[in-house]
Amino acid sequence: MGMKGLYGIVAILIFGFLIAIHEFGHFITAKLSGIRVNEYSINMGPKLWQKKIGETMYSLRLIPIGGYCAMEGEDGDSEDPRAFTSAAWWKRLIVLCAGSFMNYLTGFVVMVLLFSFAFQMPNQPVIASFMEGSAMPEQGLEVGDQLYSINGKRIYFASDFTLLIGRVPQEQCDLTILRDGKRIELEDFCLERRELTDQEGHTAMYLGLSVGALTPDTPGNVLRSAWYQCLDFSRLVWYGLQDLFTGRAGLQDVGGAVSVVDVMVQAGASEDTVSHGIQQVLYFGAFIAVNLAVMNMLPIPALDGGRVLFLLIGTVFTAVTKKKIDPKYEGYINAAAMILLLGLMLLLFVKDIYTIWKR
């Protein structure tokens, strides 16, 4: 087996694990809430193993691209007093959010492990130096200042500064810095680029400042950096969605499960050792975990976020009218949305396969 094959297997297992841990979040909170769980399945497709323990059937299936937690009354009305729809609204809310919480937690734990044993932690957003002729010192910046935010958007790492200034629609912005423990607001700060010459003798348009300071590898900094990295992952997901809706990105920039696995494989194969390759695959696995957590909470029917929205609407409706919304209507909407979602997944699958074949 070649190295790409090894990384492909690891990527598929990670993808399957993330879905299984998502469903486990629903499963364990349903159990703790007294909701009847009919089946908890790892993977999809034909059964490889099955055993009933108590009231729940536990299954292991062949295809490692999914899984499910089937709760009584989840997709329709049920007379069972322990059905999902019979539970208190706040218990149902916890169950619905638990899957995304487990994905986010998984991403955080993976980043803690990588920063503890493998990766150097990202540099702090501290100004290290200015190029000769830079306009930045003229506007009040000093070496040692920590860049805190641009237009209210936090700068967690040095790399965030480059990301965020690339998304500022105009040259002027509101810049917040930390200096000697105090927060300083620089309003209408001009991100002026000048023709400057770097140390290698290259002349181009530069802001003219170097940002980055090593982060000490203390336990507190490891936890903080892992948390900030997950927040950065979340922000990248939102930026991706914004770009799709604003036209900055198109369908050609969107990928499905095959594309995700392919990116993880390419990332692993680009490293010089198997150890470094596995680390890169795990890093992308953490990103996908956070991605799944955020995407699943979008208020779209058939996703957990859509079900949360229906739950909140139904709870308010019942509180006001003393009547319940017939669950069949939510079922119809979720079924229609699921068909559209499966159609999109199929479209992305075909696109991914074609893209890889043409490469």
What features would you describe in this structure?
By secondary structure, this protein is of the alpha+beta class. 50% of the residues lie in helices and 21% in strands. The protein is built from 8 helices and 10 strands. It has helices at 3-32, 89-117, 158-165, 219-246, 257-269, 274-296, 304-321, 327-358; strands spanning 37-53, 56-71, 124-130, 146-150, 153-154, 172-179, 182-190, 194-197, 203-206, 209-213. The strands form 4 sheets. The protein has a 4-stranded antiparallel beta sheet with strand order 5-4-6-7, with helices on one face. The longest helix has 32 residues, at 327-358.
SSE blueprint and pairings:
Layout (H helix, E strand, L loop, with lengths): L2 H30 L4 E17 L2 E16 L17 H29 L6 E7 L15 E5 L2 E2 L3 H8 L6 E8 L2 E9 L3 E4 L5 E4 L2 E5 L5 H28 L10 H13 L4 H23 L7 H18 L5 H32 L1
Antiparallel strand pairs: 1-2, 3-10, 4-5, 4-6, 6-7, 8-9
Give a concise summary.
With 359 residues, this protein is an alpha+beta fold. It is 50% helix and 21% strand.
